[in-house]
């Protein structure tokens, strides 16, 4: 019997290519298992926290995977991580952290993600509103003296 996880990964890769997530000629970077602040000593960290109703979790997760696959192809990207906490039966807290080389790299990435969403017809504000998801966003640095 084939490994279902392997099949899911292959399906995700095919879907990503079909949607244009990975630009032609670009390969997604392997995800870092841990955010290493030493990889971007002058970097910035985009930290998004979402409250996701259980009923919207599958759609939310699919959109998050698509976003993560895309940002891994962008210049200045240094790693990311996702953390999830279940809140009873009805909701989940999802926190994402994406590390970038610099504020300029993050600004370029925001523009590129916006253009990507427009290209694939994804309206993030409308999607999170229709799913009943709330979002809080922070842009942080990682002071060396606190590491």
* Biggest beta sheet summary: 4 strands, antiparallel
Number of distinct beta strands: 4
Number of separate helices? 4
Task: Specify the helix fraction band.
Answer: 25-40%
Strand content: 25-35%
H/E topology pattern: HEHEEHHE
Structural class: alpha+beta
Backbone shape:
globular
Corresponding CATH architecture: 2-Layer Sandwich
Nearest-integer average pLDDT? 83
> What order do the strands of the largest sheet run in, or round the barrel if closed?
2-3-1-4
What is the CATH topology assignment? Alpha-Beta Plaits
- What is the name of the CATH class? Alpha Beta
Distance between the terminal alpha carbons, to the nearest Å?
46 Å
Task: Please give a structural write-up.
The protein has 147 residues and is an alpha+beta fold. It has one domain (35-140): Alpha-Beta Plaits (2-Layer Sandwich), CATH 3.30.70. Helices cover 39% and strands 26% of the residues. It contains four helices and four strands, in the order H-E-H-E-E-H-H-E. It has helices at 4-19, 57-71, 103-120, 124-131, and strands spanning 44-53, 77-87, 91-100, 134-140. The protein has a four-stranded antiparallel sheet with strand order 2-3-1-4. Strand 2 and strand 3 (91-100) form a beta hairpin. The radius of gyration is 16 Å and the shape is globular. The N and C termini lie far apart (46 Å). Residues 1-19 have low confidence and may be disordered.
């Amino acid at each position: 019997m084939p490994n279902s996880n392997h099949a899911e990964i292959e399906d995700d890769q095919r879907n990503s290519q079909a949607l244009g997530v990975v630009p032609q000629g670009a390969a997604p970077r392997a995800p870092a298992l841990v955010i290493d602040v030493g990889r971007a000593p002058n970097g910035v960290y985009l930290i998004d926290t979402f409250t996701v109703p259980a009923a919207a979790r599958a759609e939310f997760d699919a959109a998050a995977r698509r976003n993560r696959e895309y940002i891994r192809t962008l210049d200045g990207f240094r790693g990311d991580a996702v953390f999830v906490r279940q809140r009873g039966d009805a909701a989940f807290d999802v926190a994402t952290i994406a590390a970038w080389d610099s504020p300029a790299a993050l600004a370029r990435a925001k523009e590129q993600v916006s253009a990507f969403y427009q290209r694939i017809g994804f309206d993030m504000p409308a999607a999170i509103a229709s799913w009943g998801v709330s979002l809080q966003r922070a842009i942080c640095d990682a002071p060396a003296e606190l590491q």
